[in-house]
Amino acid sequence: MDNTVNADMVEFWNGVGGQKWLRFQDNMKESLKPFGHMAMDAASISTGEQVIDVGCGCGDTTFEIARRVGPGGQVLGVDISKSLLAEATGRATSAGQETVTFENADAQTHPFSPNAFDVVFSQFGVMFFGHPAGAFKNLRSALKSGGRVAFATWQPAKNNEWITLSLDVVAKHLPLPAPSGPEEPGPLSFGDTERVKKILTKAGFSDIGMEGVSTSFIAGPNLDYAVEFLTQLGPAGRAITNSEANEETKSRIAGDMRDALGAYETDRGVEIGSAIWVVTARN
Ligand SMILES: C[S@@+](CC[C@H](N)C(=O)[O-])C[C@H]1O[C@@H](n2cnc3c(N)ncnc32)[C@H](O)[C@@H]1O
Predict the structure, then answer these.
(1) Neighbour count for residue 1 (Cβ, 10 Å)
(2) Which of 79, 123, 124, 229 has most ligand 1 atoms within 8 Å of its beta carbon, as the pocket-test mutant?
(3) At 153, is the secondary structure helix, strand, or coil?
């Protein structure tokens, strides 16, 4: 397989994407946790198992999986972002995590040990593959016969209020970029159930399940944080970053975002509707 197919994503996650992910890590770590745990539960990860955590970022899911597999198990976290992995490795060293290994690798093409793993897991890390079916075929080759896949991925934008609300605010000030094409890698590229089933089937998986979960997502512990987060990350953040908006326009967007998010403040933070798929399959 062509090793350069993910070049754009390698650049993004080693550049601005990685920097932003790190910047909002304190909130993201907590707000995405329930989604990752749903996928771990769906895979029934258990003691003594060998697991790959695809697109492990700063490693929080990798450490939780290590807790679940216990001292007899092993977890390999792979990520294309050196900066996020540096954070993960630092955390592993300070926590004395001996059953965790991190590799700076493209999960799409990395030569994993064949037939060695029980589970391939991911929390929002598999939607960025240039060739998803080839990537999942590669990951399947690492799984033992009967091994499982489980990952959390976003449902389409229209089901995610945190996306529609923030894009509606931006649209009052800027022309929105055309939505990405159905085959284009990106956070929403696994929203279509038929596409995901086709990818996994082509990669050789069976027993494919997609459970829809509609819940809420904490965009930040308070309004200031949530405004900053939604104007920097996600589809609205990207629309602003990629526009030629001047500081005055950005500040008007932030003001309107603040007004729009006011209704979503709760004791837990700014809590807004979200929807994911918990996808499972078997080798
Ligand atoms: C949305 S972030 C999620 C990070 C982490 N799983 C979390 O939930 O905090 C996506 C992650 O996938 C990684 N990634 C994207 N494409 C990848 C690939 N082909 N192989 C390995 N990691 C990849 C990115 O570098 C990034 O860390």
Answers:
(1) 13
(2) 79
(3) strand
pLDDT digits (tens, 9 = 90+) for 153-200: 999 999 999 999 999 999 999 999 888 887 899 999 999 999 999 999
First CA to last CA distance, the chain: 21
Residue 62 token pair? 């990798």
Q: pLDDT per residue over 50-65, tens digit each?
A: 999 999 999 999 999 9
Ligand 1, atom 19: closest residue by C-alpha: 106
Domain borders along the chain are 7-156+180-216+275-282
Each residue's pLDDT tens digit, 80-115: 999 999 999 998 877 777 899 999 999 999 999 999
Determine the Cα–Cα distance for residues 32 and 120; give it in Å rounded to an integer.
18
Q: Report whether 86 contacts 72 (CB < 8 A).
A: no
- Domain covering 7-156+180-216+275-282, topology: Rossmann fold (3.40.50)
pLDDT digits (tens, 9 = 90+) for 111-145: 999 999 999 999 999 999 999 999 999 999 999 99
